[in-house]
Amino acid sequence: MKRGWVTVVVIGLVIVVIAYLEARRPESMPLQVTSKGVVAPDFVGIEHWINSEPLTIPDLKGKVVLVDFWTYTCINCIRTLPHLVEWDTKYRNKGLVIVGVHTPEFTIEKVYDNVVMATKKYGITYPVAQDNEFATWASYQNRYWPHKYLIDKEGIIRYDHVGEGKYDETERKIQELLTELGEDVTMPISALPDETPMQQQTPELYLGYEFALPRGQQIGNPGGFQQGKTASYVLPTNIIPDVPYLEDLWESSADYVRSAEEEGALILEFTASAVNIVADALDQPVKMSILLDGESLSKEEAGDDVMFENGEAYVLIDEPRLYNIVRGAYGTYTLRLVFHGKNVTLHSFTFG
User: Fold this and answer.
1) Are residues 213 and 176 in the same domain?
2) What is the CATH number of the domain that holds 170?
3) d(Cα 250, Cα 228) in Å, to the nearest integer?
4) pTM of the entire predicted model
5) Domain count, the chain
6) Has residue 17 been placed in a domain?
7) N or C: which end of the chain has fewer CB within 10 A?
8) What pLDDT score was predicted for residue 18?
């Protein structure tokens, strides 16, 4: 599939997204700069601590601290987590303290029990701070998920990295700062693969109008989002790539779209090798059948959360989280999701 315009569109959307996020975040305070560098701001406005008693940057002086801004349904964050977990295992006893600052994007990510569920799912045992009001996010003048900051023994930010990748570089910096503590960290760099996608793919797509519209996104049905209303949607004759379409009765809310009857469907033509959907079921678990190019998803194409029954591929939506529904060969496909039950909420699609 040749779509050179995708890069230009994505760059434009990133600019819009940054402006949108900045308008919603608490006002940032100036960073403190000394002759040694930028002083790491403290953790402020934290609602809950997971896996730890409350921590402060001053109390952690004499340690190397890695602050990681993340949120649990963000696929870019999720792909970094195995590296963080491994660094915690390798270097915790050498003086490294990892603090995951969980700053939510969707409403479901503000719920304490949901964040705890995610830490268990991804094997996170290092401290996690729940930054629901973006207070610590603002104090670091952060604008991205994920974003890692490395802080030395004196509380100075010595390195930061936005997004996925550069795992070797980050780990070498961890080793450098630990060596400054007098620790022997002459050990091999992690062999975990870097799973950052390198091919052009469909961009992240949002289904709540408060997230989609500022990014220049819409559903493809005539009339688009019916904000705050429940409406019956009919598929048009022509389907535009990288645009989701609803079928049957759906409620359109700021955070998600919700199926409002027992049978509903969503159609999307995408380009990628993997598809993820952030979803929840408000009342009881709901079965979601998955078809690719008109056929039930095969086992070779199935994502990690897919199950099979009598040759039918489906996912059981029973928790508020990201579900990996397709993982196969890179290409352009038409996805059809059929929901067998109402009150399913769909927040976003991400791709890999």
Assistant:
1) no
2) 3.40.30.10
3) 10
4) 0.90
5) 2
6) no
7) N
8) 43
**Full 3-state SS string of the chain:** CCCCHHHHHHHHHHHHHHHHHHHHCCCCCCCCEECCEEECCCCCCCCEEECCCCCCCHHHCCCEEEEEEECCCCHHHHHHHHHHHHHHHHHHHHCEEEEEEECCCCHHHHCHHHHHHHHHHCCCCCCEEECCCCHHHHHCCCCCCCEEEEECCCCEEEEEEECCCCHHHHHHHHHHHHHHCCCCCCCCCCCCCCCCCCCCCCCCEECCHHHHHHHCCCCCCCCCCCECCEEEECCCCCCCCCCCEEEEEEEECCCCEEECCCEEEEEEEEEEEEEEEEEEECCCCEEEEEEECCEECCCCCECCCCEEECCEEEEEECCCEEEEEEEEEEEEEEEEEEEECCCEEEEEEEEC
At 279-329, the pLDDT tens digits run 999 999 999 999 999 999 999 999 999 999 999 999 999 999 999 999 999
Is residue 197 one of the residues assigned to a domain? no
The CATH number given to whatever domain includes residue 274 is 2.60.120.260
| Overall size of the chain counted in residues | 352
Domain that holds residue 133: 31-180
